[in-house]
Design brief:
GO molecular function: peptidase activity
Keywords: Hydrolase, Protease
Protein name: Inactive metal-dependent protease-like protein
CATH topology: Nucleotidyltransferase, domain 5
CATH architecture: 2-Layer Sandwich
Structural class: alpha+beta
Radius of gyration: 17 Å
Pfam family, one: TsaD
Number of strands: 4
Helix content: 25-40%
Organism: Candidatus Collierbacteria bacterium GW2011_GWA2_46_26
Length: 112
């Protein structure tokens, strides 16, 4: 069975198991439980993770966190099950639409 996973939109998760498609819309990126939704789709179809023979993941571009999580799940499944991801045995890398906006920490100077 082929698994397709797309979590690049941080308010939607798309899972396709062969030709059956499942979509989960959430109101906040904090509610985007990609792995939990994937597990529930597999359970609904009475499948086991061992039934997955290949994984295709949307590597982006897309939201930073959603893309990172989807690619991480795909790589973990590929590694654990020994199956290809996007047609290759090596891990795939996310494609971000922009660099992460990480601010440097503000250290407080203490003088004695």
């Amino acid at each position: 069975m082929k698994l397709f996973l797309d979590s690049t939109d941080n308010t939607r998760v798309l899972v396709r198991l062969d030709n059956k498609e499942f979509v989960n819309h959430v109101d906040s990126p904090r509610n985007q439980d990609v792995f939990g939704f994937l597990l529930s789709c597999v359970e609904i179809e009475n499948l086991k993770q061992e039934d997955i023979t290949e994984v295709e993941v949307n590597c982006g571009p897309g939201s930073f966190t959603g893309t990172r999580i989807g690619v991480s799940i795909a790589n973990a499944l590929g590694f654990a099950l020994g199956i290809p991801i996007n047609g290759q045995k090596n891990p795939v890398e996310p494609i971000y639409s922009s660099a992460p906006s990480i601010t440097p920490s503000k250290q407080t100077k203490v003088s004695i």
